[in-house]
Write a structure and sequence with these properties.
The complex is a heterohexamer, with 3 copies of chain A (about 450 residues) and 3 copies of chain B (about 110 residues). Helices cover about 70% and strands about 0% of the residues of chain A. Chain A is mainly alpha-helical. In chain A, helix 7 packs parallel to helix 14. The longest helix of chain A is centred in the last third of the chain and has 32 residues, at about 400-430. Chain B has helices at about 15-20, 65-80, and strands spanning about 1-10, 30-35, 45, 50, 55-65, 90-95, 100. In chain B, helix 1 (about 15-20) runs antiparallel to helix 2. The chains are: A mainly alpha (about 450), B alpha+beta (about 110). At the A-D interface, helix 2, helix 3 and helix 4 of A face helix 2, helix 8, helix 9, helix 10 and helix 11 of D. Strand 2 (about 30-35) of chain E pairs antiparallel with strand 2 (about 30-35) of chain F. Bound molecules: adenosine-5'-diphosphate (ADP) (3 copies). One adenosine-5'-diphosphate (ADP) sits at the interface of chains E and B.
Chain lengths: ~450, ~110, ~450, ~450, ~110, ~110
């Protein structure tokens, strides 16, 4: 077995130090006053069976986004020799993050009372009683823990799109484990941790950064980590000269569709309730997604003369990403415009920007999730409607919200870029990041997993 | 005996096969191939990256025939496979020294 | 880009006139007395979190029916060179109808108080507050709007099966947009619009036409439009001589399975509640579907000597279609018989009938959805049970219900046939409906979208 | 059509006799005192719309496990020439069991008051009113009946993995029909039937056998029946010399993912409530599954030098199986250990054990479901936590529970082995079980169904 | 040197390959092809439309050998590939003028 | 005229095609084949069952050329397809008796 415990320990040590340093550093620059919590906060501590039903369902939906959704979305886009290796990444990440989450990172993200440092309760879920509620939400803590776990799963799985076709499976597992602990958990804590009354605990939440369902925590975070990793790993052999066309867009369209359907759990589930806020979140999600798919398609149609399957599904995912932070705060009209903009900007992100700088973000983890996340986070500050989420945006006369959003975006970008970079460099030094050129030529399926699609 | 190898457009396969039956051709073997020639392939564009698909799908027919009908077979293929547009394909003729039917062990003319 | 705004405007004008004329014409022949509303109508205006949870779920399930369900069901049945083009149709329709629905057609279908003319409130969803309920249902209006949107999406997507492999993508988009406005929205209004107390507004609803989940509005409507469109477009090149066997029934069976699962949202969701009526709707859906799949399979086995995958999945879809109008009104035994009949009749629809008349309904949009919808709508009048849906059918001594159902069926058929025909002819004149023979030969994937499955 | 009614009747007679004999025989050896019911039993007879919403959803999720989940999981593992035939088995079983269930087996399993003999109420669901609750559960009986139906569907579908690639479709249908009646329904009755207060009726339930979601009823049952059927049918032609590698693990991974997602309905749905117990069941399901996937992967990585896609998905399914009986009784830490053990034992079951004895359990129905079910049922007795499910296990000082579990396991194994064996022998004598060698060589797709994947 | 081209039933491939090894055959090349011959194809029926599948899956083996073992190779293939049922396939023999091993540049007999 | 049949490693296809263009080669036909030779295949393991994949993916290029450039074509392929590692493949040369372009009916040298 190629993962050696020693290597893992060697890697964790310094990286952990970095987190702590980084946390403290940020503490000084961002000691802002507490603001309203992002998530709705009904006061009653009674179990709501309807809300619980919806959260159980949402958990299933968000798990479905990663397996098989994202697995198929990415798997269809690589060359045939790498399809199983790509699917395997999403599946294995699901397993690894599940264990890391219950052992450590759930508690890091959602317990503790320090605005900068993650908590350390709930190690191996100790003390989580069967009938405890996840206050202020009227659902059992077990359900809330599971729902949030599915977010912790999909985030590193998104990163894999950036380094597709060339990363060692063993190194990928180590990277994802450490990244979950040192990057995902702290950022989730900063943005989403609340006390039992729903008051923000993390410094970004206190600052008033709006992120309903994970624009910063999930998408910007994964997108930037993806960009860093494709820079550190280098380009695929043969890029950009050889034909690296997606081998089976049937898989990708199926995956994109399941992502779309599952995203209802992601966004409407983030209301942690089955009420009008959840309904409105679902509606704006649908509208922004359709709008972004159409604007990407239209742009491609005009520029490239043909509307493509890869284009329309990429646009849909761009819309889903961009509306994620906004989904509890904007109204349908805002969502429509937000979606149209996101489709166009991400089209540029996945075509213009990438070729301008020449990095090989293979499946556009940064071009779609990073860029889309940034666009969405900022536009949330523009389109936020007080009657929906309790906070006004620029269009309702509150330009400060855009600034707050920008602070959230920049903090996340800086933190994830630095820590991801260090992690990758350490792992590279210890065990190597990339498969050998022969293995890459042969394809991950046979080289790493000894299997092939016949 | 001759081995007649024809590379044609895929949608012409059924027409060619049917045209050959009356000549007494009792069998043939077909492969899916990719052809490169004067006819230019499509450009596929994926997220801004262009891939020129140099190779076009073609079908290769291999049919072994006796010398006496070889010319008629060639002509028939030419007529049936022709669209008059670029990329219609080629026919190559080679000599077969021996032929066998596996089931019976019959050889040469009897084997076809 | 091949859609020119001018063309669109040229097309909308006359077509809109036709709707209005048609509506008024029908007004005279069908001014019948109001009857009980089709949907259950509890009186209490309090949000039910359980019902809302189920409606949020149902919305996800019905979206999943179109993407990826229907996309895969149809995509597997075409030849390999057209698979991406076929998938693309369902995906693009999802996007286009989402925008049309929020901009216009939701309000047309569900607001207004005229029995014939659609309403014009809720343009771009203006005035839909976050906490408004969709009275008489105990769920937020946003949720009801979303649930109904998924029906508006799948209906035109069903039509595409009739003209598979040969329609221009641009013309398809224009057709679907206009058809949603001029055909779908009016018919939905006639059958389903109710006031806040649950009293029917539309003239078909008032007449007492029973259509629990869309037998007329969705299936007959799509089936007839499909028949008209395959007649107007003409046969596929090479039909019926060339081999047009489904290229990958694995995709189709996956799609049919997702349709089945998603249909629980479609039918049981149409209770707009999570109670015994929803449960019974789910039960009869399951039973009728299984029965139809088995009767189609048995018929094929006897006649063709082999039971086929395409046969059993077609039978299942036929059962799902036929039980759709009946699902809130019949009991399990009625559903069993209804399913057995539907499987046999649709088997004949997709094999005998089609070959008798020689039209090329490529994937049997009419043969399964049209024929199945008609069978289901009529049999609803036969098997309706008062103890379930409040209305008795023929077997309970109310033959009049069959007549009422027949009126509903005929009105829908006539209206959709005429308007769909005019729309197609206008679009044909303005921008052409069919791809060129070379493009058809090459396949939609490469010709229209510049992509292919490798 | 090759199913002759006469044959069916000939077969039913003796088999039914066997059930009765077997039942009575067991009655004597196991007349133990009644113990607490396995399922939670709230007393209130009021409809809970939240619980109902979750049960409707769970029903959809569990149906999705069979079609398309299991269909794809198995379909990807066979050779290409058999993929449609394999998919067809799951789909046809779904249809057949639906009809058998509503006609007969639902009533057999869940009505009646004899601890050994199944009930005979609810034939064709007669007497199931729309608003009746499935007491003691606060959900409509129609919903409970549907939820349980999906379990009755997947169980025989699991068996098909053992005799993949060689059984006649017609004989398979007859076998599944009879097996549902003579094996599934009685065992479900013994373990799960309760009265309106939630007191166990069946003798295994009374004995205190814990089986939250179907470790014995579903997995051990199917696994043993699979083992028996692969022994009776004999090996695939060419096994183990010819290359029988899975033809498309993309399908299998997709199927495994849908199984995982759907299993949330299976296990958390078995709480028949949307509360902390459901939430905890979902959590332990996730944790055990991930742990088993990782332990299988690790074992394979160490022994075979490469972690494979087939390995990790098999491990995940092994974990899902093993946690099924335990899911309402263990806590997260117990689930973690249970999963780790299950992954290792099933790895051995599907590799070592099978090759040791040389039977051809083609897709490891026994190796994964049988072995995993036994491991899970026994470990439930070890890890059960009083605070979760009301019963303590070995680790909480109640070693007797392990013995009780062992009795449940052995009873199930003995009964299903004997009756399945007799059924198969009878069907073999009457109509033959296996396709001809030519048909097997040609592949089931063409030989049985006249179709192929192009 | 000869190029021996054999069209056989797919499931016979492994047997043929194994039978050739003892003769000193060090390599061969295999293609999946579709064959049309006396053996008739299946009819597939989809929703009432019948498609006659004229072409059956076959495997084409191409093996280049020295003249001295050519006859034994032919015989061996014939024995190993025979089932005695229709559709067993054919063997065609052609002359190779030159052969090269790409890796080393060796030619003719040395290249095989 | 010669038919030059080269069996090469798949990823070398584009290089070979590009190298042939300057020699005046105007077309070629490519098939995906599986090769058995000195280079040994992978072992795939599925749930404890080992399947030795004896056959490796290769690409077969068939190109018909006039006698005058045949030698240069062979050399060019050899250079472009060589990696120096086992499994680089083979080149076989056969005689073509006649050649036709289907579109125009041109024959022999004109047809290539
Ligand atoms: N010299 C050649 N050797 C082998 N195959 C060839 C050769 N030239 C052409 N072909 C095959 O014939 C096909 C058609 O050739 P192309 O030049 O495109 O059109 P045309 O034959 O009408 O001039 C090509 O795609 C290729 O498969
Ligand atoms: N004249 C021929 N030229 C090329 N291939 C042939 C010819 N005749 C037969 N074949 C190939 O041999 C296969 C078997 O031939 P067939 O006539 O079906 O059976 P048999 O060889 O037993 O008489 C065919 O499927 C086809 O691939
Ligand atoms: N005698 C042969 N006849 C036909 N094809 C051959 C022959 N020998 C080798 N090949 C083909 O050439 C490929 C490479 O041969 P191999 O022996 O593996 O390596 P090398 O050519 O470097 O010695 C094989 O995979 C096979 O496709």
């Amino acid at each position: 077995m190629s993962i050696r415990l020693k290597d893992v320990l060697i890697a964790i040590g310094p990286a952990l130090g970095v987190t702590l340093l980084a946390s403290t550093g940020m503490a000084q620059e961002a000691a802002a006053p507490a603001a309203a919590a992002a998530a709705a906060a009904p006061a009653t501590p009674v179990l709501d069976t309807g809300a619980t039903a919806w959260m159980l369902t949402s958990t299933a939906l968000v798990l479905m986004m990663t397996i098989p959704g994202l697995a198929l979305f990415y798997g269809g886009m690589v060359r045939k020799k790498n399809v199983l290796g790509t699917l395997m990444q999403s599946f294995a990440i699901t397993c690894v993050v599940t264990v890391v989450w219950m052992a450590l990172t759930y508690g890091m993200a959602f317990t503790g009372s320090n605005p900068y440092l993650p908590g350390f309760d709930r190690i191996f879920l100790s003390g989580m009683g069967m009938n405890d509620l996840a206050l202020p939400n009227p659902v059992p803590e077990s359900v809330f823990m599971m729902f949030q776990m599915t977010f912790a799963i999909i985030t590193p799985a998104l990163i894999t799109g950036a380094f597709a076709d060339r990363m060692k499976f063993s190194s990928m597992l180590v990277f994802v484990t450490l990244w979950s602990i040192l990057v995902y958990a702290p950022i989730a804590h900063w943005v989403w941790a609340t006390d039992e009354k729903g008051n923000a605990i993390g410094f970004l939440g206190k600052l008033g950064v709006l992120d309903f369902a994970g624009g910063t925590v999930v998408h910007i975070n994964a997108g930037i980590a993806g960009l860093v990793s494709c820079l550190v790993l280098g380009k695929r052999k043969g890029y950009p000269n050889e034909n690296m066309a997606p081998h089976n867009l049937t898989l990708s369209l199926t995956g994109a569709s399941l992502l779309w359907v599952g995203w209802f759990g992601f966004n409407a589930g983030s209301a942690v309730a089955s009420n009008g806020r959840a309904g409105m979140a679902m509606a704006v999600t649908q509208i922004a997604t359709a709008a972004a798919a159409l604007s990407w398609m239209a742009a491609e149609w005009m520029i490239r003369k043909k509307p493509s399957v890869l284009g329309i599904i990429s646009g849909a995912v761009a819309g889903l990403v961009a509306v994620t932070p906004a989904s509890g705060f904007v109204d349908p009209k805002g969502a429509l415009i937000l979606g149209l903009i996101a489709g166009l900007v991400c089209y540029w992100g996945a075509t213009g920007l990438k070729h301008m700088f020449g990095y090989d973000d293979s499946l556009d983890a940064f071009g779609v999730h990073g860029v889309g996340g940034i666009v969405g986070a900022l536009l949330t500050g523009v389109f936020a409607v007080k009657a929906i989420g309790g906070t006004s945006g620029l269009l309702e006369g509150n330009p400060g919200q855009v600034v707050t959003q920008a602070i959230g975006v920049c903090t996340t970008m800086a933190y994830t870029a630095v820590v991801s970079f260090i992690l990758l460099k350490v792992i590279d030094a210890v065990m190597g990041l990339r498969v050998s050129p022969e293995e890459e030529r042969e394809g991950l399926d046979l080289a790493l997993h000894g299997e092939t699609v016949h | 005996m001759k081995l007649i190898m024809a590379i044609i457009k895929p949608f012409k396969l059924d027409e060619v096969r049917e045209a050959l039956m009356p000549l007494g051709v009792q069998g043939l073997t077909v492969s899916e191939v990719k052809g490169f020639g004067r006819q230019k392939g499509q450009t596929e564009i994926y997220r801004g990256a262009e891939y020129v698909v140099n190779f076009l799908p073609k079908v290769k027919i291999e049919v072994a025939v006796n010398d006496d009908i070889a010319d008629r077979v060639i002509e028939t293929i030419q007529t049936a496979a022709r669209t008059g547009k670029i990329g219609d394909g080629k026919i190559f003729v080679m000599e077969i020294q021996q032929a066998f039917r596996i089931r019976t062990g019959e050889s040469n003319a009897d084997a076809l």
